[in-house]
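In full, the data:

***
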Amino acid sequence: MRMALSLALGLIAAPAIAASADPTTGEKIVKAECASCHAIGRDAEAKSPDPKAPRFIDVAKMPSTTELSLKVFLRSSHKNMPNFILAPEEIDSLASYILALGGK
């Protein structure tokens, strides 16, 4: 009985974690950390300051871009990017912002 109750409470609490994702906070993060290389907004004509850096609107619209794929990407180091260390809540919010650009 205790195991079932613990499991049920865990399932109830799980959506609260996802609710911590805030696209407004994500936008603040991308403005502070990403805008020097990437076009970060909705403008389909904007160019990234670094021509090799993809525009976030393009990333958002890729069929392979999902919440999970973004979170994995943001937790991994990449050869051509600074090695940012972001808190889980920041990653959630950044992923939420990018997904919103693509209407996901």
Notes: The CA atoms of residues 26 and 32 lie 10 Å apart. The chain has one domain: 21-101. Residues 1-17 have pLDDT under 50 and may be disordered.
